[in-house]
Write a structure and sequence with these properties.
Blueprint (H helix, E strand, L loop, with lengths): L2 H15 L7 E4 L2 E4 L5 E6 L2 E2 L14 H17 L2 E6 L9 H11 L2 E3 L1 E2 L12 H5 L2 H14 L10 E5 L8 H17 L3 E4 L3 H13 L7 E4 L6 H10 L2 E4 L6 E2 L2 E2 H14 L6 E3 L6 E2 L13 H12 L4 H16 L9
Parallel strand pairs: 3-5, 4-15, 5-6, 7-8, 8-9, 9-10, 10-11, 11-14
Antiparallel strand pairs: 1-2, 12-13
Helix pairs in contact: 2-3, 5-6, 9-10
The structure holds zinc ion (ZN).
Length: 342
C-alpha cells in the first residue's frame, strides 16, 4: 500500500470513529437552524395573545391572514434594526398558532421559534382540563410528542419549553407538576425551560424542583426577573440560571424610567462579571384576539433605539451588547440537555 494512501485511509478511519462535533441549533418554525446564523435575538416577544381562557380559545378565534398582515410590518421594522431571530413566547391555550408564525417567518425572513408547555399563572385559567388530573409524566409526554412530531399535526416543532407559575413563594401542587413536566421534557429533548416567574420565591422553588430531577440551572430561564430582588437575581445567575429582564420600554417602572432602570441593573451585573447570564427583551407585541384588528400593537425596537444608545453612554462596549443580544441567547436557548448529579 502506498504511504500516502495509507495515511489517507487511517485519517478516514479516525474521522469515522470520532463523534462529530455537536452542532448547536435552534429549532425554528421552519426547522433546525445553526445558532451561528442566528444573529441578534429577541428572546421574549409575542405575535398574538388570546386572553379568553383555555376553555374557549382555539384556531377558530382569529383570522390568520388578518394576524399576519397586522404583525408583519412590526417584524420588518425589527429587521431593519438587525433582528434575525425572534422567540415567540405565547404558549398553547393563549393564542399560539404555528401556522401564523411560519407564514410570518417566510414573509419577514426572520427566524421565529415557538414553544411547547403550559401557562399556570392567573389562577390556572390557561391550563387545559387534562393538566389538572394528568401526572407530570403524562403532561411531559404531550410536550415531548410536540417536539418529536410537531404541533397539532403541522410538523412545526417547538424550540423551547414555556411554562408559568403563580408568583407565590410556595409552588401549588398543580404548578409544581408543570415544573416537573418541564424537567422531564428537558431531559428527553434538550429544550430550555423558559418560565414566567417574576419574584424570587417561585424562582428558587422551581430551581429546587429541577435540582431533584437532575436538571442544571443552566437549562432554566427566570422570566420577568425584573420583578425579583437584585440579590436574588445575582444569586441565581451565580448558580447558572439565565436572568431574563423583559419589558425594555420607554415607560415609568417603580417611579423610574425603565431605560434608566435597565442601564443601572445591567451595570450591576457587569460589575459582578455576570453579564454573560442576562437576557433582555421587550415582551412586546401583539395582536390581541377579540379586539378590532388586534387592538394596540407595540413594536420591537426600543432596545435598539433607546437602550443600546443609553448603554453606550454608560461605558458598555459593543462586545457587551453582543453578549446580551447574540451570545447569551445562543447559549441559553440552543438545544442541549443540561444535567447535574442528583
Ligand atoms: Zn410575555
Amino acid at each position: 500500500m502506498k504511504k500516502g494512501f495509507k495515511i489517507l485511509l487511517s485519517l478516514l478511519i479516525l474521522s469515522a470513529c470520532q463523534p462529530l462535533p455537536k452542532k448547536k441549533i435552534f429549532m425554528t418554525v421552519e426547522g433546525e437552524k445553526s445558532v451561528d446564523l442566528s444573529g441578534i435575538c429577541l428572546v421574549h416577544e409575542h405575535i398574538m395573545v388570546d386572553w379568553i381562557g383555555a376553555d374557549s380559545t382555539g384556531y377558530h378565534r382569529w383570522n390568520r391572514k388578518e394576524v399576519v398582515d397586522r404583525a408583519l410590518p412590526f417584524l420588518l421594522e425589527a429587521k431593519t434594526r438587525g433582528v434575525k431571530t425572534f422567540f415567540d413566547c405565547t404558549p398553547a391555550y393563549l393564542g399560539r398558532d404555528p401556522l401564523v408564525l411560519k407564514e410570518l417567518a417566510e414573509k419577514s425572513g426572520i427566524n421565529i421559534v415557538t414553544n411547547t408547555g403550559y401557562y399556570g399563572a392567573v389562577n390556572s385559567k390557561f391550563l387545559p382540563k387534562s393538566a389538572f388530573t394528568d401526572s407530570p409524566e403524562a403532561i411531559a409526554q404531550i410536550w415531548i410528542d410536540e417536539f418529536k412530531n410537531g404541533i397539532d399535526g403541522t410538523h412545526i416543532r417547538p424550540g423551547f419549553i414555556k411554562i408559568s407559575v403563580e408568583i407565590t413563594d410556595t409552588l401549588s401542587s398543580l404548578h409544581r407538576k408543570l415544573v416537573e413536566a418541564a424537567a422531564i421534557t428537558h431531559k428527553a429533548t434538550g429544550l430550555t425551560i423558559v418560565s414566567h416567574t417574576g419574584f424570587d420565591g417561585p424562582a428558587f422553588a422551581q430551581l429546587d424542583v429541577l435540582k431533584k430531577y437532575g436538571v442544571s440551572p443552566e437549562a432554566f430561564v427566570w422570566t420577568h426577573a425584573q420583578l425579583g430582588s437584585i440579590e436574588g437575581l445575582l444569586r441565581a445567575a451565580k448558580m447558572g440560571a439565565w436572568i431574563s429582564l423583559d419589558n425594555v420600554e420607554n415607560a415609568e417602572f417603580n417611579g423610574k424610567n425603565r431605560i434608566d432602570w435597565f442601564v443601572e441593573t445591567l451595570a450591576k451585573f457587569k460589575k459582578e462579571n455576570l453579564l454573560h447570564k442576562v437576557l433582555i427583551s421587550h415582551d412586546a407585541g401583539q395582536y390581541n384576539v377579540g379586539q378590532p384588528n388586534g387592538g394596540k400593537f407595540r413594536g420591537y425596537t426600543e432596545i435598539f433605539d433607546l437602550l443600546i444608545p443609553a448603554l453606550k453612554q454608560n461605558n458598555f462596549s459593543q462586545k457587551d451588547i453582543e453578549t446580551l443580544l447574540i451570545e447569551n441567547p445562543r447559549k441559553a436557548l440552543a438545544i442541549s440537555v443540561r444535567s447535574i448529579e442528583i
